[in-house]
Amino acid sequence: PPFGEKNWNEWAPAILSNVPGLNKLLRTLVFLGSERDWQLFGGEDYNAKFRARVEDELLRHMRRTVPEKYHEILTPDYGVGCKRRIFDAAWLPGLNDPRVELTTLPLTSVQERSVTLGPGRTYPDPKKTDSKAPTDERRIPADVIILANGFDTSKWLHPLKVIGQEGKDLVTTMEERGGAQAYQATAMDGFPNFFIISGPNSATGHSSVILASENMVNYSLKFMKLILSGDAEIVDVKQEEEIKYTRDIQEKLSKTVWMSGGCQSWYFTADGWNSTAYPYSQFKFTWLCMFPKWNHWNIKYTRQGILKQRLRKSLRLLALAATIVGAYKVRQAGSIAISE
């Protein structure tokens, strides 16, 4: 952080609370800086070159920061961005603490007051004969064991049961179409007046999920407003648009580092369906949330809503007519002046 971590933690709350606009400015700068890293994930040649530069910078930073004995097991065998990146200023420096030991020996057994690690290793590949990573069996004392082996991210809203039109289950409907999905990560056809926040394909590898969630909240509110104001009874995304949107997302993802970076990650399932990541920039996602494509939706307006629509259309036509008449009069006045 600016001015060092200690000074930032001490002074940032007061400064950001009392300097008008500074908080938003800082957040915008962080967003813009993060958007630069969107280049990491594409499948074009320039994306690969950008990744290579970033990988070199990251490896040099790691080698400068951690003890040499960890260099090999902290050097990935896949492209940067293929797995979720860690943004933590304390992780690498923490490995210099003599009380901390990092190992890739597998946990093979648990005793009353100890655990057994090895033989073998989980990384690098045990078949790699030139590796110096240890493979010997060790027993070490243990007071507490923390199991942190991940979670299932491929089933959205599971096991919550959501029933739509004709008794259809939301998760089942998604799976029948290939995997978890939602139009603009927010809506599924056949589930009217229902919106998901942080739904399928809303996560990014470079930007903030908080920003994406805020965008989805604002997007959903545009449709909820129609219902809460009494202008509409039902809003439901069109099936063909949901399917088209999902097909585009999956096709774009197939060319990204998530699917071709040489790693197995929680971003996608065993059959290659990626229901996690959004393949475009957050600029684009924000824009699409700000300006919905209303023709992609089936909206059942109330009598009040229809009258309002007709009134707005009439006002637009009047404004257009006034503009044309005004322009004509200005042109006529110019012609008279030239003639005189």
From TrEMBL:
UniProt name for this protein: FAD/NAD(P)-binding domain-containing protein
InterPro entries, A to Z: FAD-bind_Monooxygenase_sf, FAD/NAD-bd_sf
Chain positions covered by the region annotation Disordered: 113-136
Highest taxon of the lineage: Eukaryota
Ranges of compositional bias, category Basic and acidic residues: 124-136
Protein family per UniProt: Belongs to the FAD-binding monooxygenase family.
